[in-house]
Amino acid sequence: MSDKLLNIKNLTIQYVTEDEVVSAVNGLDIELNEGETIGLVGETGAGKTTSALGIMGLVPNPPGKIVSGSIEFAGKDLLKESEEGMRKIRGNQISMIFQDPMTSLNPVMTVGEQIAEVIEIHENIGTAAAFEKAKEMLELVGIPGARANDYPHQFSGGMKQRVVIAIALACNPKLLIADEPTTALDVTIQAQVLDLMNDLKEKFKTAMILITHDLGVVAQVCDKVAIMYAGEIVESGTLRDVYLAPKHPYTHGLFGSIPSLDEEATRLKPIQGLMPDPTDLPSGCKFHPRCPHATELCATQVPKVTEVAPGHKVRCLICEGQVEFKAEEEDKK
């Protein structure tokens, strides 16, 4: 667990068109050790999926462009790898489970052929041997091997997600990126898929980046958490740090918008306003237009990353001691 597997420094990704520049990821920093799981949490449009595509070398170009930063994986800077080099890494050392299993699978190939294709490319074994291993992978994710000859339309949503997981884990990758793997599934199937991913992660000792907006899913699966807002990580630390001692006002807002079984509350406390337009981000702190503690300083000064406890980092002027944390007013309604 002490070996650093992934080290992303100051990653900046933009989508450039004739009319505008979309600042999707702004100075992203992530560290991940072997076998660890980090949850990347944020609202839609925070830059989570673009960050994952940056690691995979799949940012569509044009219009996407990695402007600066480094992505060091197992001692190699992925941004300096050739396209051929990345093809050898993708699916073999780094795999990704995409957001919607319904559209991730090829409808005219059997699921066995789709798993076998990945194995054949990366492990240099024959078609028959690859297909046998594909059957074993299906068994591993709880699907009978005999169903390797079935097509995606013959599977339910939860079963398709299991097939996608089998494809991602077919070559025993060191890093698995799961982009909202349970969003399209109902709650009972979600729990089954998360349990399956946990079991397989333990079995293969795979590190994982779990992209989600569901804090409950993060609590169930992750060791570390990174809260993302407007392309930046505003708070990061261990699960315990962030859940038991949140420091950033945005993190407080996320937890405040979840119903609690322990508290008697008549209404939730949503975060006011909307995510900023990535083509026109606010000056200073990106969260200041929605922050209940914001002052004039927040509108002009960009907050630095402050380490409030070992490994617990926050990007906020409150933690720098320049802005006061206002006590919550009682709800007058």
Task: Please give a structural write-up.
It is a single chain. This protein has 333 residues and is α/β, with parallel strands linked by helices. Helices cover 30% and strands 24% of the residues. It contains ten helices and twelve strands. It has helices at 48-56, 83-89, 101-104, 111-123, 127-140, 157-169, 187-204, 215-221, 239-244, 249-256; strands spanning 4-16, 21-33, 37-41, 64-73, 76-77, 94-97, 175-179, 207-212, 224-229, 232-238, 305-309, 312-315. The strands form two sheets. It has an eight-stranded mixed β-sheet with strand order 6-7-8-3-9-10-12-11, sandwiched between helices. Strands 2-1-4-5 form a four-stranded antiparallel β-sheet, covered by helices on one side. Strand 9 (224-229) and strand 10 (232-238) form a beta hairpin. It starts with a strand and ends in an 18-residue tail after the last strand.
What's the gist of this structure?
The chain is of the alpha/beta class. Helix content is 30%, strand content 24%. Strand 7, helix 7 and strand 8 form a beta-alpha-beta unit.
